[in-house]
Amino acid sequence: MLKYRFNSVGLLLLLLIAIVLPFYLADYWIHSLTVALYYVIMAVTWNLLGGYTGQFSLSHHTFAVIGSYTSALLIIRIGTPLWMGIVSSCIFNAFISLLLGILCLRMRGIYLALTTWAFAEIVKSYIRMDFQFTGGDRGLNTPLFFKTIDPLPYYYLFLAFAVITILIIAIIMRSRIGYYIRAIRNDELAAQAMGVNTVRWKVFSFMVASVLASMAGTLYGHFIGLVSPVLGEFSEMAFIIIFVVIGGMRSQAGPVVGTISVRFLAEVLRKWPEVRMVIFASVVILIMRFFNGGLIEFLRKVYQRIRHGKDGESVSVFQKME
User: Fold this and answer.
1) Furthest-apart CA pair in the chain: how many Å?
2) According to the model, what pLDDT value does residue 196 have?
3) Gap between the Cα atoms of 16 and 8, Å rounded
């Protein structure tokens, strides 16, 4: 109960800060926060797969790429309205994720990871090779969602979609489906023995996460005004996993805290790109050594220390925490 209360209070506090923060920031930082919100959506949805369901997919970022290209190609090649391009990209990704899920999700562990990685590489390679249709490495220019380069409306658009995404996943995880998903993660064979259709619910969580990721990628393309294979690089997938691990897997607030923290650190270290990954990797090692539940576990223990200080005395939150 304390865990859920801490997550809920933390997310509400972050939301209140996020609503008022842009009024005190320059356009550059609003733009950076908008990009961070895109990664929040990607991290939260991957956490549904890797954290809650135990599916270590390495193609999650690819569905954002497919979504952005589907919408862009429909608008550019056929002339469909922007809203129709966005809706069509979600429908197409639902179909692709269903097929991939049925094909791959009977596999487990490293086999699932390798299969999804292979799918991601196929999509990225095709986009780069088919210069006539997809624009190759040059990418495609796409219409802006709000017909303006002002980052403020995009910030609130991504903030709203991030909130919706978190709510959708929270509702799923607190429903009967959520119990099935946790049972699959904890012991898939035992879940099958208890009558849980493990393949059905793994495909379900895979589809939900993929469609939400495709929506995020589509909106991102219409925010930047360009879609390119860069979003399909494996480094994008690595960063998404880093965000979730640093923030804390299997928690609602963890991926949000991890993404915002790492993105802020990335901005601070922008002048030293050669050491950025070294620092990120070091942070991951330290967190996994001392707080394998991520930053959200650290913050929860700090909260507990403050709340349950012995004899009313001030207790240092940086003392030994087990």
Assistant:
1) 72
2) 85
3) 12
Q: What pLDDT digit, counting tens, does each position of 151-174 carry? A: 999 999 999 999 999 999 999 999
What is d(CA 64, CA 216) in angstroms, rounded to the nearest whole number?
A: 6
Q: What is the C-alpha separation between 214 and 22, in angstroms, rounded? A: 26
- Residue tagged 């990418």 (tokens): 139
Selection from 139, 159, 143 nearest residue 38 by Cα: 159
Phi/psi of residue 226, nearest 5 degrees:
-155, 135
CA separation for the pair 172, 48 (Å, rounded) = 10
Sequence-ordered alpha helix ranges (H) in the chain: 2-20, 27-46, 60-73, 82-104, 109-129, 131-134, 151-173, 176-186, 188-193, 198-224, 234-247, 254-268, 273-290, 295-307
47/282 Cα distance (integer angstroms): 21
Question: Left, alpha or beta for 250 (phi > 0: left; psi -120 to 50: alpha)?
Answer: left
Q: Which of 206, 184, 204 is nearest to 196 (CA)?
A: 184
Give 276-294 pLDDT, tens digit per residue: 778 877 877 887 777 777 8
The enclosing H or E element of 226 equals strand 226-227
pLDDT 10s digits, 250-264: 888 889 989 998 888
Residue among 71, 99, 55, 27 nearest 216 (CA):
71
Nearest to 306 by CA among 6, 103, 18, 72: 6
Which residue has tokens 């997809």?
134
Q: How far apart are CA 190 and CA 177, in angstroms?
A: 16
Dist. CA 133–CA 294, nearest whole Å: 43
Burial (0-12, 13-18, 19+ Cβ within 10 Å), 279 = middle
Q: By three-state DSSP, how is residue 140 classified?
A: strand
Kindly report the average pLDDT of the chain as a whole number.
Answer: 86
Q: How does residue 266 score in pLDDT terms, banded at 50, 70 and 90?
A: confident
Task: Decide: helix, strand or coil at residue 137.
Answer: helix
CA-only gyration radius of the chain, Å: 20
